[in-house]
Specification:
Blueprint lengths: L1 H51 L2 E20 L4 E20 L4 E5 L4 E6 L4 E14 L8 H21 L2 H22 L3 E4 L11
Length: 206
């Protein structure tokens, strides 16, 4: 009877020992699988960040025609010398987001994508300015400085046109579309997004 009880105890210890080995193996197996899945999803997100790291450009074409006029007066209003020119402007306006300057880090332990910085929009105006019907007097001629001022005024007028046409807003909408697609992919992989730039997400974690 004593041997039987001892044998039962030995069998129980052996079963417990065997279960311990099986549980340990299962733990490391699933841990490795989880690490592999995390590594795989991390690589997918990193590849998506590389794809997104590009120069995003929204472009608009604008035309303007206006007359520039200037007058020099002497002896009060008795003597005056006028100069004027017809200005024709064709310009391309580009609003750019250089997403290569975006700062994103990955917390692979907690599976969080941290967006630290999103670059601001850069606006570039490429004008083609032509001058017609130039009228000037001997005492009031167009100088190189005058024509530079005319060109700057033309650029300001084009900039105002682009602003009224909401070109920068269109560029921002395109940026948000790119970022939201990235966030959807990130969430589909079981990751969260932390927006430190305060540009996309209002809540700290999503």
């Amino acid at each position: 009877m004593y041997l039987t009880i001892r044998n039962k105890r030995n069998i129980s210890y052996f079963i417990i020992f065997l279960m311990g080995i099986l549980l340990t193996c299962a733990y490391f197996y699933f841990k490795n699988k989880r690490n592999e899945a995390t590594t795989e999803s991390s690589q997918v997100i990193q590849n998506e960040i590389k794809k997104m790291s590009k120069l995003m450009v929204i472009e608009g074409s604008y035309s303007d025609v206006y007359q520039y006029k200037s007058e020099d007066q002497y002896l009060g209003n008795l003597v005056h010398f006028e100069k004027k020119v017809l200005v024709v402007v064709n310009a391309k306006v580009q609003v750019m987001y250089d997403l290569k300057k975006m700062d994103i880090t990955l917390d692979t332990v907690n599976k969080i994508v941290i967006i630290n910085k999103i670059p601001k929009a850069e606006t570039q105006i490429v004008p083609d300015v032509k001058y017609y019907d130039i009228e000037q007097s001997t005492f009031n001629k167009f100088s190189a400085e005058d024509l530079n001022k005319v060109k700057q005024k033309a650029i300001e007028r084009i900039s105002n046109m682009a602003e009224k046409n909401k070109l920068e807003e269109q560029a921002r909408e395109q940026l948000m579309l790119e970022l939201n697609n990235f966030i959807l992919l990130t969430k589909s992989k079981g990751w969260k997004v932390q927006d430190n730039s305060q540009l996309i997400i209002t809540s700290p974690l999503r």
